[in-house]
Design goal:
homodimer; elongated; 343 residues
Chain lengths: 343, 343
Amino acid sequence: MDRSGLVRVKAEPFNAETPLAALREPLTPTSLHYVRSNFALPAHDGMLAIEGAVGRPLTFSINDLRHMPETTLPVTLECAGNGRMTMQPLPTGEPWSGTAVGTAEWTGVPLATVLERAKPGPEAREIAFYGADHGPYKGGPEVHFGRSLPVETAADASADILLAYAMNGEPLTADHGAPLRLLVPGWYGMASVKWLNRIEVRTERFNGPYQVRSYIYEWADREHQPVTHGRVRALITDPVPGATISPGRYTIRGKAWAGTTPIRSVEVCTDGGGEWLPADVEPALGPYGWCDWAFSWVVSGAGRRVIRARAVDAEGCTQPDAPEWNRLGYGNNAVLPVAIDVR
Amino acid sequence: MDRSGLVRVKAEPFNAETPLAALREPLTPTSLHYVRSNFALPAHDGMLAIEGAVGRPLTFSINDLRHMPETTLPVTLECAGNGRMTMQPLPTGEPWSGTAVGTAEWTGVPLATVLERAKPGPEAREIAFYGADHGPYKGGPEVHFGRSLPVETAADASADILLAYAMNGEPLTADHGAPLRLLVPGWYGMASVKWLNRIEVRTERFNGPYQVRSYIYEWADREHQPVTHGRVRALITDPVPGATISPGRYTIRGKAWAGTTPIRSVEVCTDGGGEWLPADVEPALGPYGWCDWAFSWVVSGAGRRVIRARAVDAEGCTQPDAPEWNRLGYGNNAVLPVAIDVR
């Protein structure tokens, strides 16, 4: 497993960001796609159990799943804590700078198809997904990583949730959840449980620590909320921070995405207090993938320039100029100034 | 004039930060000391006029001043807009990142001595200081750079305000106000008017634009305030942001200063949510100079680490964890996280 191209955040469990240069590509190569792990790489016996409030408890091997009708989707995944390091005050948690994001083509069986076969009872309320990875939660009792979805979401074929066994046309790598992971398009990455080996149909709310203690927006001034869908965000890939560029024409480029909502527009500001001007936005990489955008800038003068980009989604949501601070540092989609030198 | 070692922010008028490595030294070499200019380098005829509400209007040549009793003082100067670029939302103004600070030995005549000779009248209220530099203020009418001080401050010999003609033992350079500048220890840099050629004793408040429009804390939630003294701040010089260091013992180093107030202590935190531990603080470089501090860190583990330092001054003031946002982006003394890689 080649981790050498990644920007390491933690050695063990392994956590790493995508290098900015790799985010120029439409699809992020697997070896450069960000990795978020809560525990050491686990053993996985290649089996998936579906149990709980179901008419027919089932067990699938990966091979069984590979023989079912497959779906392939490009999906932009972003860590819920991405950009935590630029929140003020600095929240606790892994210090993600802003490139814990990537887009891969994921292949698997629709969750709705598999779930249907197990015949969830009418009393089913939530579906919990457990990974083979385990360890003490914040130094406390031993747990497996686990997350839940409302049954309506999990059973909704149009939500395109996958039991994914391949990434960019190859079997999953260990860092990305081999041999099987959940893939929840449009949600922050924590929903896409890696090393998936157990699905539990529940009649009561799931209250595992990664559902009710981590991945919660703990606002200072209003009720706490669970972290769910991704938020609208534009990322500048060219120029890179600290780049030196010459006066003349320069094409500023980047990506934009907004969870399950399409991107309507991207605007760019090349001057601290200046005007926001529209960028050219390419069609998105499917309903859950980012889009490329470009802005032709006529660079004049010399010195430090601060470039900013912001996206607007189809619902009219845009990015704040300052992060919406929350204690655990999630969902930072604030406009991120990029300083460069013109000479 | 060698500007090549500086980190340029604007080519014309020339504005530049001190490179971080130069901030390791007790005194900042003149060629590496940050430069803040509002207008092009002006011509200066080498004369200083003192006029207005005085018993005896006077004119001094630089040579006259050089023959008066001189004082030499190390003084830490910091730009009021230093750190503007890390404020969220991004304020308007020059995008200073955080190293628009430096300490030089300044030599000149005490302002109080010179002022006394002109015999300010009892109705004197403010003393205005004008530079030879001039231009349109924000695209509006032509002005000279000008700032005022209350007469009590200007006439107070113990405030150690200098009419400075030398920096680090050499005549002032053009970028630092040759042949003469005001030097107001403990105040943000805007008070230390460069290219000084006129002092006006006033019976009414001075309302030049650099006094009443710029250099004002425009708070969102309380009355505006003029920018005056510097604020308590610690700066990490080692390691530099993005450095790679090895496990084992590492000495974190930096500077700390607090306007006219001595530094009481410096604390360091080497772990996002972790403990703040005391650093060893060296004696300051005189009453207006920064002090060196050091913290012996036993580095373990591998991955991204976020280091922070904060200073406490003799009045118990410390640094906020987030900048106190104001529209024009002044006085950012928030704790600044420095990310490094341990491997």
